Give the backbone structure.
Amino acid sequence: MQANIVIVGATRGFETLTYSIPPALDGRVEPGHRVLAPLRARKVTGVVTEVGERLSTSELKPILEVLEPRPLFDRPHLQLMEFLASYYMVSIADAYRSVIPAVARVESRTAYNLATPPDQLARATFTRVERSVIETITKRPQTTRQLEKIGPPSEVRATIARFVADGIIESRAATTGRHRDTADLVARLVIGAAVESVRGPKQREVLNSIVSGGETGVLVKDLTRRKDGTRAVLKSLARRGLIAIDAAPATHGVAAEFDLNDEQQVALDAISPAIENRRYQAFLLWGVTASGKTEIYLNLAARALAAGRNVLIMVPEIALAHEIVRSFRARFGSLVGIAHSAQSVSERWASWMAALGGQARVMIGPRSVIFAPMHDAGLIVVDEEHDASYKSEEGIFYHARDLAVALAGFSNCPVVLGSATPSSESYANARRGRYRLLRLLRRVNDRAMASVEIVDMRREVADARRLAAAKPTNGAGREAKSADLPDAVPLSTTLVAALRENLASAGQSMVFLNRRGFHNFLQCHICGNVIACPNCSVSMTFHMRDRSLRCHYCGNHTAAPDTCPECNSYGLKGQGFGTERLTQTLADMMPAARIERMDSDTSSLRGARARMLAELRAGEIDILVGTQMITKGFDFPGVTLAAVVNADMALNMPDFRSAERTFQLLTQIAGRAGRGERPGRVIIQTYAPNHYSIRAARDQDYARFMRRELELRRDLMYPPFARLAMVRIEGAEPQIVRRMAEAVAKSLVKDTTPEGIRVLGPAPAPIERIKQRYRWQVMIKSRELKPMRAAIAAMRAEVGPSADRDDIYLAIDIDPVRML
């Protein structure tokens, strides 16, 4: 028997290789298994995709080891990986490498360390590369690939060979990655075991500990924590048949009773037959905010589990993962697992192993959870399906929502896409009959929707100027008129009064501003210089907390100077405002209020976001100021006022989806208020009160907005009436990047037709330089996907080799979501 294996280790030029299955592994190797295989002088991890006889007539090396007793991926996930590679135009090996956690990519490499330090006389004769090699491996062992970064690879390899021959350095085998299943194991007493036959004191001690665990047993990791030979004792007791060591059983939570309203029951009854009949069907659950979509998810999950199948729940943000996990664990106990990028490597791999071993039968997480080894999925849910976070913006540019629909098809199970503001693509699919549309028009317990008020900031500014002209000096009576100064935070009198009134009535408020920092930038009022990031085409954001300037694209930061770097004058002044400054302004206006700020700066520490959300739920926060992370799916009954400081920020982005994103954002914010017994109020400050997206958000009329939006999309040939792809060209030299972008566009133009493919560009990206790399882009529009993909493939074949020579990165983004 032989096996085709996709190599997922760090290799050059290897994709799928064929290996023989040795007699010792006969019958133990199946498609989806993670295995260890030889490759030249190394051992690398691979995933078996096919097993059969005579797959190759060549002389084959044998597989070395099967790394899990059960295949890591089931057949639907193997099909998903093939779909991922094909649809997004990447190699199958790159697809697996991007999906499997690094800890699971077991590799053996040759590493070099210093054996005999060369004397000073020898060092004096070394070349620059030779000196660098010695200095580098003196600090820590290095592989050949790591050392090749020092200089020309051929010279580095020759240096290594000479130093090894001279005995200056030596090689050793180094293994990275994790070999074993890390799921929690439990030791239990075998029924009828002759415990009286155990005589040794150490064996008796370990056996007594296991007996004390009763029927549930004792976790092996608790028994072996002291590392005093307990593991060997456990193996001896297991060989004698006295104990059994297997996976820890999952525990169920206390099943809660949910009283569903008529709309919820209709949705539940519509989806359930697809679970029971193991049938693929896609549902778009369009429900207003607080309409009880989570209760439907819970009931559907219970039916899938009762049918012996597993459940996958996807959420757009890690914070939302914690929120929905709380609801699911209250219902299903430890059957619920969670996997996300904020976990440590060991935690994430343990989550995968819990899913693989069946301890976690409900997996919840952001977009990467779609690849968790959850076998036999019986239900897939994509909550807040419209959210742009489901689109990966690095590596492979996949859209997890679309992959979820594909995985449901491969798994023969229903997929539920839930949202209060469905994406235009999903809404169009529902209209075309690809998805079944289910509506939830009422909030739970028939609570009223929050009232929404638009504040025209143009009038506020005009009123402030008239007041300033009448009263040139700031008086105590003008505290609420902070919009009168051009560099002040523009808080309208309406919003300030509403915040004070809500505070006085013991209500909680959320204030949204999608920009962090204190000032947007520092500008010199003498020479006009704006302090910009040296690595990116953006200004540096000023943070008051540590008086620093930070770039939010590359992470560069430095202390804010006292004088202008250009003219050395003291004319630097902050311009614009972010959440840090907004928080300070509100604290000055309402010193008695308990105000917290939630953005990337305050919630980056582990547990900080969960702590703030817990305090908000407990009523310990009066006003929560935050960026977009506070708008998504949170259910806080105490929040009675939600406010948007500047609704125009998303609206003015250079993106054809800007109006849709603005409507979705404002509707989601409006949904945070009035979810409890008290009615909610929403205030939206804008300089464009008559824009159709803002007016529709005020009326919370999704259908009206989408009718207007789809008319514009149809006229301009944008999704969902056309297919898009973006080719991004990145490199260190601006002239080379530009020439390559022109070559890309020229190649693509060959396939254009008036009614078929259209090519827009080349043009510099809206942010032309990030991390010292220049960025251009070419957009392709097409009525059909197939000819567009063919044109891109031909372009890559034509332009790709010269791009590699010039160190230019060509990124192909099928169905792009962000245009920046």
